[in-house]
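Inverse folding, one chain.
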């Protein structure tokens, strides 16, 4: 039997590549940038498995061009880049990588909380620019993280891991979520409130909702105006949850104090974007899960999802397998 053909849209960890190569004939895009759309559309024509990054859009147009496709495996926990319903309609399972990046991403969210509250980036810039001439009683005053109220928007795995870290800082933690999470509440001593209360009470608001039509620009002018003028907004989820124009005005006009973003809209954020000129805004290039160990785990998990799909078995970590029902009928 010839091996099935798969396309991997970026260079991934060699252990994962080797694993896929044991069972498939692999086409890998090796350039240091995402596959141009035309190239992607051209190369999916003959493949049965597609191993994607969050920068690849998998939509009707792509699926039209991929008549042999039997599985899509996204090397990310989020899958807003994929039209899951369109895949489901075609009987194509979609894999993702939950769990393995939870603590790594929570670490980065906490790094951003501390960096914003204590103005770390401004401090580094200040020293590098040669401005540090003397100690000063009012140099770079920030806000205490310990004892502050942390507001969590969306209580998934990563949010719970952030709440766990917040315990060590003696923080009060509130969350807003579509449903009550009694076990997590009891385990972490956190409380569910409505969005309005969350916005008004949070000293630090950390975003952890996936990007969906319901959460697109969920944080806009109205919401930002409800926050404390001393509040810090942290986003490690998806840029589209926050309206960037409203955020710019909020930071410029002092509706809130600071923002620290690992994700932006658009992504990448253009170097001349107004947010990048604000001293009270930190922007990172979407590196929440970017540690050696975690990216390897993600790559391997995505490989296993891909291979299961090629075998016609349920993916170990599947977005739409419940909708697809039993063994796929191809
Ligand atoms: C990264 O943003 C991911 O969804 O894994
Ligand atoms: C991701 O793992 C999440 O559910 O937050």
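Residues assigned per position:
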């Amino acid at each position: 039997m010839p091996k099935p053909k798969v396309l991997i849209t970026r260079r991934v960890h060699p252990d994962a590549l080797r694993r896929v190569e044991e069972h498939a004939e692999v086409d890998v895009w090796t350039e240091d940038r995402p596959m141009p759309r035309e190239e992607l559309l051209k190369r999916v024509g003959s493949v049965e498995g597609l191993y994607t990054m969050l920068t690849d859009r998998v939509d009707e147009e792509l699926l039209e061009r991929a008549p042999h496709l039997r599985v899509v495996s996204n090397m990310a926990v989020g899958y807003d880049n994929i039209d899951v319903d369109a895949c489901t309609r075609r009987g194509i399972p979609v894999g993702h990588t939950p769990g393995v990046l939870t603590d790594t991403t929570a670490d980065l969210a906490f790094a951003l909380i501390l960096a914003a509250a204590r103005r770390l980036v401004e401090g580094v810039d200040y020293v590098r620019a040669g401005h540090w001439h003397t100690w000063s009683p009012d140099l770079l005053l920030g806000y205490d993280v310990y004892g502050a109220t942390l507001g969590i928007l969306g209580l998934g795995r990563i949010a719970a891991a952030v709440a766990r870290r917040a315990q060590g800082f003696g923080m009060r933690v509130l969350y807003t979520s579509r449903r009550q999470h009694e076990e997590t509440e009891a385990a972490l001593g956190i409380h569910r409130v409505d969005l309005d209360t969350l916005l008004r009470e949070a000293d630090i608001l950390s975003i952890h909702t996936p990007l969906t039509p319901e959460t697109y620009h969920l944080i806009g002018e109205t919401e930002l105006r409800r926050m404390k003028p001393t509040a810090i907004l942290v986003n490690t989820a998806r840029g589209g949850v926050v309206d960037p124009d409203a955020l710019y005005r909020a930071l410029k006009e002092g509706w809130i104090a600071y923002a620290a973003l690992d994700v932006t809209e658009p992504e990448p954020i253009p170097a001349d974007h107004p947010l990048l000129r604000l001293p009270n805004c930190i922007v990172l290039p979407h590196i929440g899960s970017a540690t050696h160990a975690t990216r390897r785990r993600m790559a391997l998990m995505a490989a296993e999802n891909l291979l299961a799909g090629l075998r016609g078995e349920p993916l170990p970590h599947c977005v739409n397998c419940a909708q697809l029902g039993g063994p796929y009928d191809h």
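The pocket of glyoxylic acid (ligand 1) is lined by residues 54, 76-78, 101, 288-289 (CB under 6 Å). The chain has a mean pLDDT of 97.
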